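Duplicate of #3305? Posting structure anyway:
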C-alpha cells in the first residue's frame, strides 16, 4: 500500500452550501498526511484543460494556504463558511462527444492521480461512475444536493441549509401575508423530490403542502380542496394562509410548469370565485381572497452553510480520505442512523441507473413515512392523496 498519495477533488452538478466545507476538510486532512491534492476546476471539464495543456498539474495543487485572503483571515478555514464552490461546478450532463470523454480520461492520466473524490448529486454520480469505469479511476463520491434525493444516504450536504432558508422565507412571508390577509403560494425547489418542500413546510408553518410524491399533478379536486381548507381557516378567523408547492408538481395539463406557484395562485383565485358562485355554502368571503406567488429560486442554494451541513461536509470529507487511505475505492460516502458509512458503487449503481432510465426519483419522500404522518397530524392539507392512514400516529 502506497503511503503518499496524489488525489484529485472536484465538485459536479448544481452547487449548494457546504461544498467548500468538504474541500476544506479534505485538503486539511490530506495535507496532514502529506498527500498531494489537486483541485479540478469546473467538474470533469478541468481534466480537459489539463489534457489540452491549458493548465499544468502544479497550478491545481491545493495547500492549506491555497486560499489566503488579504489581512487577518489566513488559510483554508474561512472556506467552510462560504457557499458555492471555489473549484467551480458545471452541470452539463453526460459528455456525448467521444473526444471530450477522451480528453477527460487523458487529463486524469496526466495528473497521475491515485484516486478522485467527486462531490455530486445522483446525476453526476451516474456520469462520473461511467467515466471512472472507462478510465479505471479509483473513485470516492460524496453526496451533495439541496434536494436530498441521493439514494442510500439519509442526508446530502446542502439540504439542511436549504431547509433553513426556505423555513426562514416562510416565516418572513407569514407577516406580510397576515397584514394583507393574503394567500401566499410558495414554490420550492427539489426537482422531483418533495423533501425540501415537506420539511420546510412543516418547520415554516405551511397550511398546505403539495409534493409530487402525493400530488403528482394539480387536479380540480386538489384546488377545490385547498380552497375549502382556506375557507375553514377563515372560519376560524385565520385570514391568511401559506401554501407550499414543490416544483416537481405538474400543472392541470400534466406538464412541468416553471411557474407552478403562479399558476396555482391564479387557480385558487378562480376556484374560490367559482365555489362561492355555485355552492349555497358559506365560504367565508372566499371570493374576496387575494393570492400572491413567490418563487424562491436559486436563493435556496445560497447562504452560509448551517452547522449541521458544515459538520456533515467535514465528516464526509474525512471519511473519503480514510477510504482512499484504506484503498477502499468506488464507494459512496453516506449518512446512516446518525453516523458516517460508505456503500459500494457496484451495489448501488444498477438501481440509480434504472431510476434515471425510467425518469423516476431515486430517493423520493415515503408517502407513508413519518414526515407525511407528521404533516397530517398537524392538520396540514397535503392534497387529495389516496393515502390517508386510519391511524396517523402509528
Ligand atoms: O438539484 C438541485 C436543483 O437546485 C434543483 O432543486 C433544481 O430543480 C435544479 O437544481 C435547478 O437547476 P439549475 O441551477 O440548472 O437551474
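Output from current build:
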Amino acid at each position: 500500500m502506497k503511503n503518499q498519495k496524489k488525489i484529485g477533488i472536484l465538485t459536479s452538478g448544481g452547487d449548494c452550501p457546504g461544498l467548500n466545507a468538504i474541500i476544506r476538510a479534505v485538503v486539511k486532512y490530506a495535507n496532514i498526511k502529506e498527500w498531494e491534492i489537486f483541485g479540478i476546476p469546473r467538474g470533469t471539464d478541468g481534466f480537459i484543460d489539463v489534457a489540452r495543456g491549458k493548465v499544468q498539474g502544479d497550478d491545481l495543487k491545493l495547500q492549506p494556504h491555497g486560499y489566503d485572503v488579504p489581512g487577518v483571515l489566513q488559510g483554508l478555514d474561512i472556506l467552510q463558511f462560504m457557499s458555492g464552490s471555489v473549484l467551480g461546478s458545471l452541470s452539463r450532463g453526460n459528455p456525448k462527444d467521444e473526444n471530450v470523454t477522451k480528453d477527460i480520461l487523458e487529463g486524469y492520466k496526466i495528473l497521475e492521480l491515485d484516486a478522485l473524490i467527486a462531490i455530486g448529486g445522483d446525476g453526476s454520480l451516474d456520469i462520473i461512475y461511467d467515466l471512472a469505469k472507462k478510465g479505471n479511476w479509483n473513485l470516492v463520491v460524496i453526496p451533495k444536493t439541496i434536494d436530498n434525493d441521493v439514494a442510500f444516504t439519509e442526508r446530502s450536504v446542502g439540504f439542511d441549509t436549504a431547509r433553513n432558508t426556505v423555513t426562514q422565507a416562510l416565516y418572513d412571508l407569514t407577516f406580510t401575508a397576515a397584514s394583507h390577509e393574503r394567500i401566499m403560494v410558495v414554490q420550492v425547489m427539489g426537482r422531483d423530490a418533495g423533501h425540501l418542500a415537506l420539511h420546510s413546510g412543516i418547520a415554516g408553518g405551511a397550511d398546505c403542502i403539495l409534493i409530487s410524491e402525493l400530488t403528482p399533478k394539480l387536479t380540480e379536486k386538489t384546488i377545490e380542496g385547498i380552497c375549502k381548507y382556506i375557507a375553514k381557516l377563515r372560519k376560524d378567523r385565520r385570514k391568511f394562509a401559506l401554501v407550499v408547492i414543490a416544483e416537481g408538481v405538474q400543472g392541470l395539463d400534466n406538464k412541468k410548469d416553471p411557474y407552478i406557484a403562479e399558476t396555482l395562485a391564479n387557480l385558487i383565485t378562480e376556484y374560490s370565485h367559482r365555489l362561492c358562485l355555485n355552492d349555497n355554502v358559506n365560504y367565508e368571503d372566499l371570493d374576496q381572497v387575494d393570492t400572491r406567488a413567490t418563487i424562491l429560486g436559486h436563493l435556496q442554494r445560497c447562504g452560509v452553510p448551517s452547522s449541521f451541513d458544515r459538520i456533515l461536509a467535514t465528516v464526509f470529507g474525512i471519511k473519503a480520505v480514510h477510504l482512499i487511505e484504506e484503498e477502499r475505492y468506488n464507494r459512496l460516502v453516506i449518512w446512516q442512523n446518525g453516523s458516517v458509512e460508505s456503500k459500494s458503487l457496484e451495489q448501488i449503481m444498477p438501481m440509480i441507473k434504472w431510476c434515471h432510465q425510467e425518469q423516476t426519483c431515486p430517493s423520493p419522500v415515503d408517502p407513508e413515512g413519518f414526515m407525511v404522518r407528521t404533516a397530517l397530524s398537524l392538520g396540514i392539507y397535503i392534497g387529495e392523496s389516496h393515502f390517508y392512514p386510519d391511524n396517523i400516529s402509528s
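Confirmed duplicate; merging threads. Residues 14, 91, 121, 145-147, 189-191, 247, 301 surround 6-O-phosphono-beta-D-fructofuranose (CB under 6 Å). The CA atoms of residues 356 and 362 lie 8 Å apart.
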